From TrEMBL:
<keyword id="KW-0408">Iron</keyword>
<dbReference type="GO" id="GO:0015976">
    <property type="term" value="P:carbon utilization"/>
</dbReference>
<keyword id="KW-0411">Iron-sulfur</keyword>
<dbReference type="GO" id="GO:0008270">
    <property type="term" value="F:zinc ion binding"/>
</dbReference>
<keyword id="KW-0862">Zinc</keyword>
<dbReference type="Pfam" id="PF00484">
    <property type="entry name" value="Pro_CA"/>
</dbReference>
<keyword id="KW-0456">Lyase</keyword>
<dbReference type="InterPro" id="IPR006311">
    <property type="entry name" value="TAT_signal"/>
</dbReference>
<comment type="similarity">
    <text>Belongs to the beta-class carbonic anhydrase family.</text>
</comment>
<keyword id="KW-0479">Metal-binding</keyword>
<protein>
    <recommendedName>
        <fullName>carbonic anhydrase</fullName>
        <ecNumber>4.2.1.1</ecNumber>
    </recommendedName>
</protein>
<feature type="binding site">
    <location>
        <position position="146"/>
    </location>
    <ligand>
        <name>Zn(2+)</name>
    </ligand>
</feature>
<feature type="binding site">
    <location>
        <position position="143"/>
    </location>
    <ligand>
        <name>Zn(2+)</name>
    </ligand>
</feature>
<feature type="binding site">
    <location>
        <position position="92"/>
    </location>
    <ligand>
        <name>Zn(2+)</name>
    </ligand>
</feature>
<dbReference type="InterPro" id="IPR001765">
    <property type="entry name" value="Carbonic_anhydrase"/>
</dbReference>
<feature type="binding site">
    <location>
        <position position="90"/>
    </location>
    <ligand>
        <name>Zn(2+)</name>
    </ligand>
</feature>
<dbReference type="GO" id="GO:0004089">
    <property type="term" value="F:carbonate dehydratase activity"/>
</dbReference>
Amino acid sequence: MITRRQLLKGFTIGTAGLMLSRVEGLNVFASEEHHGSGHILVSPDEAIARLKEGNARYVSMKRLSDPGVGPEARKPLTKGQWPYATILSCSDSRVPPELIFDEGLGKLFIVRVAGNIINPALLGSIEYASLHSTSRLIMVMGHESCGAVGAAVHAFEHPETKETPGIEDIINRLMPAVKKAHKKTGTKGKALVEAAAKENVRMVIAQISKESAPLAEMQKKGELKIIGAYYYLGSGKVEFWV
Ligand SMILES: [Zn+2]
């Protein structure tokens, strides 16, 4: 099997031209480290703390007057990107990560897909942010009243339902979580949607480290954390599963 070190040899981070192998030589566990390009490498725990603070500002409506979305923020980002966290979240219009974490440009590497499912292309996007860029935290975030999970629960309860191939693909990827949640909780309808959405987050986390050997290796070394989270539509609060 190819090791992470072998895989990374020869790759560069972003457009800054910084060899990732140099990052390996640094103490990435410190809360913040400047790496070769002068940009800050943020540890997994510091990334979690930043997301928690940002969500607290959002919930209390004490958002930053400028979280980094203006010309000054844009200018250095023309040279590359140095995100500190990857978020796999739902496409749902009520769950926009930059807003709910009160965060600016270039900070969050976001992969959005209905039902925050995983497939090879989505896994590749997640891998990119940690293997070829600076993200040391992967957060899989489900949410309350997820329509995609609702569709999967509907299909589970009414197997005769027909959808388009695209929607069916999403439903099929959510179905193992629906079945597992149903078996565990014996619930149906709305309660099953919530249980399945949470089960899906747990299953996707397990799938990421199972299907990506380099990410699993980083995780094992403590260089990367993969965590779950759950967003509540009414309160705006994110529950961090750490
Ligand atoms: Zn959703």
